[in-house]
Amino acid sequence: MQHAEGHGLITAPVDRLQATSSARRERSTSRFVAWSETLEAHIAYIALILCIASITPLDSLASAHSGALFGLGFLAVWRYGWGLAHFVRSNIYRSIVFPRMRAAAETAMRESAENEQHVFLLVTSFRIDGDTTAAVYRAAFEAAKRAPNGATVVASIVEMGDQRLIKQLHQLVCGENSNVRLVITRIAGSGKRDALAYAFRAISRQEPKVDDVVAVIDGDSIVPSDLVSKCMGFFQADSRVGALTTDEISRVHGKAKFHIWYSLRFAQRHILMSSNGLSGKVLTLTGRMSMFRASIICDPDFVNQIESDYVDHWRFGRLKFLTGDDKSSWFWLLRNRYKMLYIPDVVVATVEEPPSRYFLPAATQLMVRWFGNMLRTNTRALALGPSKVGLFTWWTIFDQRISMWTSLAGLAMVFLVGLFATPYAFPIYLLWVLVTRYLLTLMLFNSRPRVSAFYPFFIYFNQIYGSIIKTYIFFRLNKQKWTRQKTTLADNRTRFESYAREASSVLLHVIALIVFGTLVALVLGQLAVPDATVFAMAYGLNPVN
């Protein structure tokens, strides 16, 4: 990757026409995204619902197929009841529980000011553009400057251009007499897991004290300047806290649909993380920014888990993890019964660079990585049991496995009813989707001050297409790929063994889909359960009258 000297500190010539065109596109995108959040956009969406409702015979489905109503009603009560539980828990956490936690953390900070608790800010950077790198490290140095008792910024990098930029920024932001130290570790670009392990060992050599903390920051995450003062106290207030993570917002490079999609994901994330925060165990310690006790970062077992994590699969053998370092750290803390907190009043801005300029290929690549990381860790987390994990957290992990099928069940029911009973099932289902997803959108006002009128379409896309990707990757857990890095795992299998593995994945996936379709048809009454007479005739026996 080529870097301009100083990443913009010494400005390189820029093509004026290209820059003007890019700025014009960004302004147009911003205006469209802003319009989608206006009252006019929401009125237009409601008008669409009313138009479809006026031409849809709403009584046709009830008269044509009671089985569909039963199936859809059962799924709706289950899925929306579960969503409502998360919504209620989220509000309890943010309105009642967390303010008490915040007060205790601030009290702990005041009472332990003489302890000189030190903070390490570890930033990993690889193949990130110069402007983003400059913004990320500038924010990290500003946060380090405001740390109550000094800080050390550890930069884990690959390119020499990054090293020159970081040193310049350290001198520019912190000055000569600053209490902010800079430690740089460089590796050969062998992957983020290696970068983290090298940096963790570098921190261990600094001999941090028991109460010190380490913030692990991704190279595209811009932290607030008060990060340390607003997060460090939680570790002092409760010795069982092993790590924490925060709210996030996105700064997207790309078309308007990417802006809306990412903003939706983070709005939903805020509610779900708050809900699980009520149990003291979030479902992921995001790699964008999570803060750990230094004693955990320096634990050789923890470092080894990050560097060389794996699971043993009955069909794939030993699967060494390439991606998902955040899931590895989360599982280590879960297994060792540490608390993992969510801090909803601290916001980290993440710079999002979609892996493709086209939405569907980009979403597919990202979902394959996200859901693969989730599913590879899901089984071993469930194996810990509800007594160790906590009942609500354990059930939430279990729900990750079944929600990918229940999300598709409603669509499958409508598809079968529409083909074999009444075509009016399709417009009724469309109306149902538009109404229910809009209600879910309105609930997101509890998470964000503005929501887009296009959220309902992306909510449905995430549910259906996301479930398709989950069911696909569930049978292909060996597929791993970074969206930015080109790092891959060595494959020592013969060509025949590779083909056999792929064939077994396809076979199991097809069998699962057949079983799924059969169960849906049975619920609808379009297939009947064979009685004893049918089995007797199949084996050439005379049925008993």
Structural account:
This protein has about 550 residues and is α/β, with parallel strands linked by helices. Among the domains are: about 325 residues, Spore Coat Polysaccharide Biosynthesis Protein SpsA, Chain A, CATH 3.90.550.10; about 45 residues, no CATH class. The protein contains 19 helices and ten strands. It has an eight-stranded mixed β-sheet with strand order 3-2-1-4-7-6-10-5, sandwiched between helices. The chain starts with 15 loop residues before the first helix and ends in a 7-residue tail after the last helix. The N terminus is likely disordered.
Top CATH class of the domain at 78-404: Alpha Beta
Class by SSE composition: alpha/beta
Poorly predicted regions are 1-12
Secondary structure tally, helices:
19
Largest sheet: 8 strands, mixed
Which short descriptors sum up this protein?
Spore Coat Polysaccharide Biosynthesis Protein SpsA, Chain A, disordered N terminus, two-stranded antiparallel ribbon
Give a brief description.
This protein has 545 residues and is an alpha/beta fold. It has helices at 16-36, 39-54, 60-64, 66-111, 130-145, 160-174, 192-205, 227-237, 256-277, 294-297, 300-307, 325-335, 359-383, 386-389, 391-420, 425-443, 455-474, 495-524, 532-538; strands spanning 119-124, 151-157, 180-186, 213-218, 221-222, 241-252, 289-293, 310-313, 317-320, 339-352.
How is the secondary structure organized here?
Layout: H1 16-36, H2 39-54, H3 60-64, H4 66-111, E1 119-124, H5 130-145, E2 151-157, H6 160-174, E3 180-186, H7 192-205, E4 213-218, E5 221-222, H8 227-237, E6 241-252, H9 256-277, E7 289-293, H10 294-297, H11 300-307, E8 310-313, E9 317-320, H12 325-335, E10 339-352, H13 359-383, H14 386-389, H15 391-420, H16 425-443, H17 455-474, H18 495-524, H19 532-538
Parallel strand pairs: 1-2, 1-4, 2-3, 6-10
Antiparallel strand pairs: 4-7, 5-10, 6-7, 8-9
Helix pairs in contact: 1-9, 4-8, 4-9, 4-15, 5-6, 7-11, 11-12, 12-13, 13-15, 13-17, 15-17, 15-18, 16-17
